[in-house]
Input
Amino acid sequence: MKTLLHCPPLFAVLLVAGAVFAQEKPASLLPVFGAEGREFTAKAQGGKAIKGWLPTGWDDNSEWATLAATYTKLKDGPKEGVTAVRIELKDLGEGQLQLTSYSGKRVFKKGVKHVIEGWLRGSAEFKVGVRQPGDPYEFYVEHELSGGKEWKAFKAEFALEADKEAFIMFVMPGTGTVDLAGVVVREVK
Output
């Protein structure tokens, strides 16, 4: 009877599969920023509109602001299989554009390290933060993100000083265009 060590091809396959599985990152705490999505139109203040396409589970939260914005699904993501969305903030009076996933609302535990990762392209001012869900709508943590003419990976780490209910929110405080792709939020072990 042969053991696994005496079946080199089988042992090699199991070894490689184990290594791949061990390196796989845990699933995102947010809905997948993926290819499944929907078209939408929402009214903003001042008779303006927010419209376009967003991945399932992701929402624009800017209807309280005076702005006109368009979200467009792109075909040229940073790599094969990564969904990308162009965010174009055309007209801004008061407020800011806010993109979030309400289903990503959760209690982030004190001292537990998390990371927000993805890809960014464009030169508009763009931030990501961890925000409380209710009044006074403060950010517990905010990170400025910078892109460029080509896709650039970003990584923003955070750990809160107390248990806090919060959700992840991307913010665009001024007009311009930015492309966002492959957003993942995970706990760092």
Q: What stands out?
A: The chain is about 10% helix and 50% strand. The CA atoms of residues 72 and 152 lie 19 Å apart.
